[in-house]
Amino acid sequence: MPQLPMSIPSPDISYIDLGPFRLHFYAVFILIGVVLAVLLTSRRLRAAGHQGNEAIDIALWAVPFGIVGGRLYHVVTHPGDYFYPGADLLKILYVWEGGIAIFGGVVFGLVGIWIGARRTKLHFLVFLDALAPGMLIAQAVGRIGNYFNQELYGSPTTLPWGLQIDPGSPAFPAGLPEDTLFHPLFLYELVWNLAGAATILLIERAIFRDRRPQPGTGLSLGLYLLWYGIGRAWFESFRLDPTELLVAGIKINLLTALGAAVVGIFLLLNARRLERRRALRRSAELVTEES
């Protein structure tokens, strides 16, 4: 693909062959993201007084559930890509070619986390609070895989950082010149997610100060849902995506993102209530000790 001045070129390859094996970069970056999320979550659990190895045990349940759920959500919202005369239905299973929707992954992943948390005897919300910043980091790394697959971009743009897309790609919008540049949504979301992870950690530090964070209040999970929901709703508003599932003429992904943000707000309000209770209890304990 020729590189245009002042633009972001898309990779010409999305995999490499290692002997009889084909290694897809999309899968590699998803795996890297999962490993980073598990490591950070394990560290945060240890800092909160837990063993930390619960993160690995729960991930063994959450990751397969998340992949299956993410794929199902993608297929349901893009039926035209998989169900047509002469279609190879086995392609529904080809997750390495791209097409794992984060919303489906989160919903099904929650089921896996619930099962894993019960087996490790760790409170469900404690794990989710510990996971929140690592989840955003994992999603950011996964977006690099979307870049290699040329599957996450927005409307045409003349900005210097416009993204080149192979005009021979089936997803290239019909009727546009071959040298059209597009908003690099993979990059926007990557930066947004990393900023969100840093924001969660900074807010935790500001609130808890000299005390270690108290996972289980829903604070970090609420911040994650609010941050990601707002960002994703914004990106969906100008994303070029053949999503066929609409509700009242609005893409289901945009509505789901707004719903996630609303849930995040409720979790934050509840976390504030719980933290006030803990503060009052600590004050009462200090008064009792002094008397």
From TrEMBL:
Location (main, coarse): membrane
Regions crossing the membrane: 23-42, 54-73, 93-115, 122-142, 185-203, 215-235, 247-269
Signal peptide interval: none
Cellular compartments per GO CC: plasma membrane
Name this polypeptide is given: Phosphatidylglycerol--prolipoprotein diacylglyceryl transferase
Family matches, as PROSITE patterns: LGT
Any single biological process term in GO: lipoprotein biosynthetic process
Keywords from the UniProt entry: Cell membrane, Membrane, Transferase, Transmembrane, Transmembrane helix
Organism classification: Bacteria, Bacillati, Actinomycetota, Actinomycetes, Micrococcales
Native organism: Pseudolysinimonas yzui
Pathway annotation from the record: Protein modification; lipoprotein biosynthesis (diacylglyceryl transfer)
This enzyme's EC code(s): 2.5.1.145
EC primary class: transferase
Gene Ontology molecular function: phosphatidylglycerol-prolipoprotein diacylglyceryl transferase activity
Subcellular localization(s) per the UniProt record: Cell membrane
UniProt similarity note: Belongs to the Lgt family.
